Amino acid sequence: MSLQPLNSNSFEKIIYDDGESCLVVFSRKDCHVCKEVVPILEELAPKYDGKFGFYYVDVEEQKPLFQRFSLKGVPQILFFKDGEYQGKLAGAVDDEKVSDKITEVLES
Amino acid sequence: MADIMNNYDLIIIGGGPAGLTAAIYGGRARLKTLVINKGTLGGQVNTTREIVNYPGFIQTGGSGLMKMFKTHAETFGVEFLKDEVNDVDFSQEEKMIRVKKGKEFSAKAVLIACGCEPRLLNIPGEKRLRGSGVAYCATCDAEFFEGEDVVVVGSGDQAIEEGMYITKFARKVTVIVLHDEGIMDCNKVSAEKAFQNDKMEFIWNSTIEEVLGKDNVEGVKIKNLKTGESSELICQGVFFFVGMVPSTHFLKESGVEMDQRGYIPVNDLMETNVEGVYAVGDNRIKYLRQVVSAAGDGATAAVAAERYIEELNSFNINVLECDKKVLLLFLDALNNKSLEFSTLLEEVNRELNERYKVVKVDMATKKNQAKKYWIENVPSVLVLDKGQEIKRLKCSLNRENLKSQLI
Ligand SMILES: Cc1cc2nc3c(=O)[nH]c(=O)nc-3n(C[C@H](O)[C@H](O)[C@H](O)COP(=O)(O)OP(=O)(O)OC[C@H]3O[C@@H](n4cnc5c(N)ncnc54)[C@H](O)[C@@H]3O)c2cc1C
Question: Which of A36, A74, A91 sits opposite B40 (nearest CB)?
């Protein structure tokens, strides 16, 4: 399942207005680590259907978004709940790390 | 026990250029071949922007070249699995391999082609600030440092080439070099280009001890190795290019020999110390770690593995599954006494109405079998019943003596 891409507007709505529990991966097309991390998320997403959202931001197309979080690299997975930032995972991560972090966010 | 579907002739761990080349040779030799690779197929080559020294390709993108390797292997029927091998058992003739998602596989021969991964310095701040200014890939992250100050640690090809790429974005790139002024580990052409680049600066005889910063990188602590003095340098980014380490940690308990750093020693056939297990590409001890040499290793090992498997199969059919008792004769085609003895043994067996089946093993080509039965001299004869040794003959050229041992 491919992840739903976000732009500044949809980001605003989903993260802050709706306060959805979710993660957003900041990624770019020619980054080899991203190419490993994104498929892991795509595989994981169906398991959390309806409970936890999975979104995608292309940093080349959405510069203001990564500037806003003053990100210093891709891939980075940012976690949100009730409109609040819950932390991030940077670089190469495996499915376990992501699942653990999701559980932590859901239970917090 | 692995079910029958998971049995292979050849399993290749790692799908970089070494593993993929071995797969092409294995598939072409009609071996049932599986490549298990974690991450993106093609390995480290995916991290290179371009390759300019692979024969036949004046300039090519790394990942494009690897896609061609993979397609080539697929045309020969090779199977691929995306997973990580995290446990192996090489103690039996049938080698077992377990992957992270839980599946088990078995193979007659195994190729270790896991390559290398970037070394971490394990200094304070390195892990904590990863993605917040600490980076390992210029293509991925250089752009985030537009107009900022960046430190590059290391002076190898990768450090200097990536450092120059970062100058396209950063205000200044400071390279921290272990060696005396003017000495770098990279090739001469890159070094000269770097020295001429106005945005590149160098700090010699030094390494870094700590990455500083609360939420983002704010600087680094530099240690001068000559004077022992520490100093701080303000920067917003640190790129580490401090070499590679072999990805062989999962083999620690496997019995496969490794040096202290984890590189695997092999012989000309790419054989490790474990029979039927080969190591190829960057994860073995070698002089040149490049795509072309990785591919060469893969070809050698696949052919060696093919011969080994053939030997194993024919041995199983001729010896282990034979109804008669077997006289396993080790000889050397270049040794007259062993040839003479061979003729005599067959004659005697004929006189005994072919009571035994005579199977000849040429020591020159079938070293593995000789090793397995602790044979050192030719001629030697073992009497086997369903593969079990029942006795060893005294190899005399005296007909009656020989006959008496066989009755
Ligand atoms: C930045 C950079 C630039 C380079 N430029 C060049 C160049 O211009 N020309 C050149 O010839 N060479 C270049 N090289 C070197 C070249 O990439 C390597 O020599 C080559 O990739 C080695 O191939 P390999 O198959 O041995 O290993 P790798 O390419 O490292 O592949 C190993 C594969 O095994 C996988 N793996 C590891 N552990 C496991 C496990 N437990 N289970 C399953 N899979 C596993 C890895 O994920 C990887 O996919 C460069 C390297 C780098 C890093």
Answer: A36
